[in-house]
């Protein structure tokens, strides 16, 4: 590969991007192959279309008159039965979004390897995988487990699952796929920026890229061919999430919903979570940063927030809906952001800008919601299903996540008649109930041995 492939060079010239081959002669064989591979995945016509939008104003939040609180769906016994039947029929797959690194926790490893089990030290990956394993065993069902990674986490994630023997799951039931990336463009010229000789400035294409990556990788078509009709979507940093909760699945199926979402009640107007609401009658997520102060603080007659439906990023999608929004004219579109991006300058020297010099592009998962013609929202208790791991200390930290796991275990134990030793209202000992022992409180009460007592740190997960 002494000279650039002629078809590649011609393609770059046609789009005014021939500068991308300026360092070709100085690159070794591996670097040349990597660059050719990167450029093969670039849609230059799409980038040109996006660059023409660079000066479009951001869409303003609609007026208060066009926004209303979202109605909530109930949990019912009938819905549980419907959901369990769908799981038994093998119609539900689980999708774990795990492309992020734990940089805010002091490591560049995948966040999923972070240990959060209060007694076991189980990783986030182990907790989630064992939930899928427990569901498969409970319902004697095939539940495909999809793990979305990123270029930064892909290899280590696969290595971690392999080393841990897939946490008991059949290896052929677990599929890893990578989130897409997008090049950064020079804000003034639209030329692709280079991070280093032979290497483009690439960044993940946003959480909405999970859905397009499913389609582009062929996984969506494979799921459909295997009889999957519903895809449960959740994020790696929440160990309390109830994977494929039958009541949630059941209401989704009963109502023929295209998108279903769980929410938790916001109690603090300033909490940094998106809020589900109706915009012109369509279910939408209102970003916390966009919600006007008056609306964020508005109270109902019961004293609760009017716009209280906080999003923990737990969704259920119909496969037919995902097919519709990941192809053709209805495909999710990119959001543009002007950013400062370190890159090579025109002379090929490292450049650290002091002002925005680049356009970056992201797809947002919440853009999918208003595209649904049929949708539902189910409110769940925060303490039962939402324990996000975001920060090294303070709120949403390993300490708060482990406390929430202990608190849930204590509630389940006490509801089963077990005395939990407490000091100042808190359990005196670390407590942990793993998914392999029980997925919910009802199952826990059935499986707990008679005469069970707490005498120290306690782990139930067999």
Shape: globular
Q: Kindly name the structural category.
A: alpha+beta
Strand content: 15-25%
CATH topology category name of the largest domain: Spore Coat Polysaccharide Biosynthesis Protein SpsA, Chain A
- Residue windows where pLDDT falls under 50 for at least 5 positions: none
What's the number of domains? 2
Largest sheet descriptor: 8 strands, mixed
What would CATH call the class of the largest domain? Alpha Beta
Strands, total number: 24
Give the overall pLDDT as a whole number: 94
Describe the 3D structure.
By secondary structure, this protein is of the alpha+beta class. The chain is 29% helix and 19% strand. The longest helix has 18 residues. The chain is globular.
Quick overview of this protein structure:
The chain is an alpha+beta fold. The chain has two domains: 15-390, Spore Coat Polysaccharide Biosynthesis Protein SpsA, Chain A; 395-462, no CATH class.
What labels would you give this structure?
462 residues, alpha+beta, Spore Coat Polysaccharide Biosynthesis Protein SpsA, Chain A, 3-stranded antiparallel sheet, 14 helices, 24 strands, 29% helix
């Amino acid at each position: 590969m002494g000279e650039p492939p002629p078809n590649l060079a011609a393609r770059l010239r046609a789009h005014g991007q021939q500068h991308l081959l300026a360092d070709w002669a100085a690159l070794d064989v591996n670097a040349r192959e990597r660059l050719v591979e990167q450029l093969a995945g670039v849609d230059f016509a799409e980038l040109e279309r996006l660059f023409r939008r660079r000066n479009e104003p951001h869409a303003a939040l609609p007026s208060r008159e066009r926004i209303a609180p979202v109605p909530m769906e109930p949990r019912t016994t009938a819905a549980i039965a419907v959901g369990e039947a769908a799981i038994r029929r093998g119609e539900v797959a689980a999708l774990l979004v795990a492309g992020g690194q734990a940089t805010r926790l002091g490591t560049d490893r995948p966040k999923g390897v972070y240990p959060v089990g209060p007694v076991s030290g189980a990783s986030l990956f182990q907790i989630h995988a064992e939930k899928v394993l427990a569901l498969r065993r409970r319902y004697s069902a095939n539940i495909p487990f999809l793990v979305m990674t990123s270029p930064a986490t892909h290899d280590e994630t696969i290595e971690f699952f392999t080393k841990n023997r897939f946490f008991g799951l059949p290896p052929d039931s677990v599929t890893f796929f990578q989130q897409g990336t997008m090049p950064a463009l020079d804000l003034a010229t639209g030329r692709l920026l280079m991070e280093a000789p032979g290497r483009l400035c690439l960044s993940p294409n946003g959480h909405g890229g999970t859905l397009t990556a499913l389609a582009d990788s062929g996984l969506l078509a494979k799921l459909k061919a295997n009889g999957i009709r519903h895809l449960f979507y959740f994020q790696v940093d929440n160990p309390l999430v109830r994977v494929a909760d039958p009541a949630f699945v059941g209401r989704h199926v009963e109502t023929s919903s295209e998108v279903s979402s769980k929410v938790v009640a916001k109690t603090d107007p300033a909490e940094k979570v998106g809020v589900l609401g109706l915009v012109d009658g369509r279910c939408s997520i209102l970003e916390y940063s966009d919600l006007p102060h008056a609306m964020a603080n508005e109270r109902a007659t019961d004293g609760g927030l009017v716009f209280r439906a906080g999003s923990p990023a737990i969704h259920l999608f119909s496969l037919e809906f995902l097919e519709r929004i990941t192809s053709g004219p209805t495909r999710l579109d990119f959001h543009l952001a002007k950013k400062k991006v370190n890159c090579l300058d025109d002379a090929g020297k490292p450049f650290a800008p002091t002002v925005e010099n680049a356009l970056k592009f992201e797809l947002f998962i919440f853009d999918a919601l208003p595209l649904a013609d049929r949708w539902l929202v189910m409110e769940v208790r925060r303490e039962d299903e939402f324990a996000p791991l975001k920060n090294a200390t303070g709120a949403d930290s390993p300490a708060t996540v482990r406390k929430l796991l202990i608190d849930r275990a204590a509630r389940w134990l006490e509801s089963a008649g077990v005395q939990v030793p407490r000091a100042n209202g808190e359990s005196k000992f670390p407590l942990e109930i793993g998914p392999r022992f029980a997925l919910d409180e009802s199952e826990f009460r059935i499986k707990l041995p008679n005469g069970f007592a707490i005498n120290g740190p306690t782990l139930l997960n067999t």
